Amino acid sequence: MADNDEHTTFDAVSAGASATYPMQCSALRKNGHVVIKGRPCKIVDMSTSKTGKHGHAKVHLVGIDIFTGKKYEDLSPSTHNMDVPNVSRNEFQLLDIDDGFLSLMKEDGSTKDDVKVPGEDLGKQIETDFKSGKDLIVTVISAMGEEACISFKEAPK
């Protein structure tokens, strides 16, 4: 093997955390997060059934998609592992609103222009406050390769 060939197998590996991590179903808690049907969800309700004659206790999970608000349900044996999404929340200063996207300033001073203006009342309120000259800080939640603005506040003077 030539010297320059030994590093090629790892070039495609990204440096960063995995999108999800496994957790035993019985260890999940209400208001925590879980992946149901491939979507990152916040657990809003969960109940455990007793063990049957031939089996394990089952956990019934009800979750709300953290990006779309859609409700999902799942039934899983309590001993099985389920994926838990790595969810992060970051705050950014709003610089501009352009063509349906928020222009945000990162901590290092660079800009981030790939977060969509949220739908419905939240997006309208952000646009109204921004046009009236207020300095706004928006909260962006990210998980499993998706991002969404979920709230905002006026920047302290």
Report on this structure.
The protein has 157 residues and is mainly beta. It folds into 2 domains: 20-85, SH3 type barrels; 87-154, OB fold (Dihydrolipoamide Acetyltransferase, E2P) (Beta Barrel), CATH 2.40.50.140. Helices cover 8% and strands 50% of the residues. It has 1 helix and 11 strands. The protein has one helix at residues 120-131, and strands at 20-24, 33-36, 39-48, 58-65, 71-77, 81-85, 88-98, 101-105, 111-116, 136-143, 146-154. A 5-stranded antiparallel sheet has the order 9-8-7-10-11, with helices on one face. The chain is elongated.
Concise synopsis of the structure shown:
The protein is built from one helix and eleven strands; from the N terminus they run βββββββββαββ. With 157 residues, the protein is mainly beta. It starts with 19 loop residues before the first strand and ends with a strand.
Do you know the CATH architecture of the largest domain? Beta Barrel
Straight-line distance between termini: 61 Å
Strand order of the largest sheet: 9-8-7-10-11
Total helix count? 1
Rg is: 21 Å
CATH class of the largest domain: Mainly Beta
For the report, how would you describe the main beta sheet?
Answer: 5 strands, antiparallel
Order of helices and strands: EEEEEEEEEHEE
- Number of distinct beta strands: 11
Average pLDDT:
85
Structural class: mainly beta
Relative strand content? over 45%
CATH superfamily of the largest domain: Nucleic acid-binding proteins
Parts with pLDDT < 50 across at least 5 consecutive residues: 1-15
Measured as a percent range, the helix fraction is: under 10%
| Approximate shape | elongated
